[in-house]
Amino acid sequence: MPMIRETIVTTAGPAGLVHMAPLGLIADGEGWIIAPFRPSKTLDNLRAMPFAVANYTDDVRIFAGCLTGRHEWPTVASDEVPVRRLAGALAHAELAVDRVTEDEERPRFHCRVLRLATHAPFLGFNRAQAAVIEAAILVSRLEMLPRDKIEKEVAYLQIAVGKTAGPAERQAWQWLMERIAARYSGPAPAAGDRKGRPHWR
Ligand SMILES: Cc1cc2nc3c(=O)[nH]c(=O)nc-3n(C[C@H](O)[C@H](O)[C@H](O)COP(=O)(O)O)c2cc1C
Fold it and tell me: Which of 33, 40, 103, 176 has the most ligand 1 atoms within 8 A of CB, as the residue to mutate?
């Protein structure tokens, strides 16, 4: 299996409107593969405007925020692509789509790196950040995974959050836990309401 890096991918929608989504970029030699499952706004945007930015951030509120309806994070213009980038990222890579491997479920956009820039130092690993990313992945599969698996994994991840989180990680964790609680507080959504995505990894 190739290496995967969890990033916030920005793409440009109609009228240049920025869209951001947490996506795992798949290592592909010197470049990266973006592999969104259908249906996906990222996918639609990449077809219309074949550029993206991989935003490398340790602010896990953005991962949790994007999955809980909080998409309003500050962005700035990029240098070489017509796609805005996250203002607060530690680093970013500006990407151009070279070719697409078509697939009914999950097309793969093979991207070349046009520019890589660093904005702030990487200050080391934090277990709560890793736990938030794992919990965000669980939340993105909430309609597909059994409740007992979600609850068991959350209970384990909570240990790292309790021991090592700062304010940003606690905030991100809270948003995700609220989302999980809301999911189990009422009836399951009707099949038609679900996003219809298969497991994406
Ligand atoms: C860490 C992380 C990695 C993800 N990677 C992928 C991915 O590689 N492909 C995918 O389709 N969804 C992935 N997701 C789920 C998407 O972020 C989510 O479904 C999002 O809404 C994408 O849809 P959109 O392009 O319509 O916004 C990931 C979620 C998280 C938290």
Answer: 40
Helix runs in 107-166, H state only: 127-140, 147-164
| Residue of minimum CA distance from atom 17 in ligand 1 | 22
Greatest CA separation for the chain: 47
Alpha-carbon torsion, ordered 179, 180, 184, 185, to 10 deg: -40
Q: What is the pLDDT of residues 85-122, one digit of tens each?
A: 999 999 999 999 999 999 999 999 999 999 999 999 99
Task: Give the chain's domains with CATH numbers.
Answer: 4-118 (2.30.110.10), 127-193 (no CATH)
Cα angle 44, 45, 48; round to 5: 90
pTM for this entry: 0.94
Q: State the closest ligand 1 atom to the C-alpha of 19, by its place in the atom list counted from 1.
A: 27
Choose the residue to mutate in 6, 7, 23, 104 for probing ligand 1, maximizing ligand atoms within 8 Å of C-beta. 23
> How many whole angstroms from its chain centre is CA 191?
24
Query: Residue 141 Cα, ligand 1 centroid: separation in angstroms?
Result: 10
CA angle 8, 10, 11 (to 5 degrees): 150
pLDDT digits (tens, 9 = 90+) for 29-75: 999 999 999 999 999 999 999 999 999 999 999 999 999 999 999 99
